[in-house]
Amino acid sequence: MLKKYSFLLALTLLALNQVIASSIKEPRFLMISHLNMHPFHISMTEIKYNANQKSLEISQKIFWDDLEVELNDYSKSKINFLKPANKEELNKLVKKYILEHSDIYINGKRADLNYLGYEIDEDVAWIYLEATNIPLPKNAEIKSSVLLKNFPGQQNIINFYKDKSPKSLRLMEGQTQGKITF
């Protein structure tokens, strides 16, 4: 069900981008990637509050080719996600980059994000994080500047689940943080 929801949201955003792009003269945010030729740049992050564990379970879905471009620039070296020269070093680089470009504050207090790892699934990279000792959220402030350096049209969609229905944010260049109240 969750994958179906994510897929439908991505398709909706793609259609919205196409409508907007057709109505402006210079569609800045419809860049085409040189590898997979996907016409939009988006990440999807799901944050689930686990009341029993008092934790945040975070999964982030990013096109791996976009992340590869960003990490090439970030590290000033050549990265290959599909055939990494050293998977452990790539994992450390992904961890450093993601933690530098992501922050979550629950009830005004910064959550200590723990990077768990990543995996490649077809054309996306799944990044996994967690935060423990999290009180019941009354509000959450989320910051994300993932992929914004090389992709000015990047949109980072955040779905925060405290209960069954998510509260959502769309973060992008010029608006890299947002607040959710429960």
Overall description:
With about 180 residues, the protein is of the alpha+beta class. The chain has 3 helices and 10 strands, in the order αββααββββββββ. It has helices at about 1-20, 65-75, 85-100, and strands at about 40-50, 55-65, 100-105, 110, 115-120, 125-130, 140-145, 155-160, 165-170, 175-180. Strands 5-6-2-1-8-9 form a 6-stranded mixed β-sheet. Strands 4-3-7-10 form a 4-stranded antiparallel β-sheet. Strand 8 and strand 9 (about 165-170) form a beta hairpin. The longest helix is centred in the N-terminal third of the chain and has 21 residues, at about 1-20. The chain is globular and about 40 Å long. It starts with a helix and ends with a strand. The relative contact order is 0.18. Residues about 15-35 have low confidence and may be disordered.
Topology, pairings included?
Blueprint: H1 2-22, E1 42-50, E2 55-63, H2 64-75, H3 87-100, E3 102-106, E4 109-110, E5 114-121, E6 124-131, E7 139-144, E8 155-161, E9 166-172, E10 177-181
Parallel strand pairs: 1-8
Antiparallel strand pairs: 1-2, 2-6, 3-4, 3-7, 5-6, 7-10, 8-9
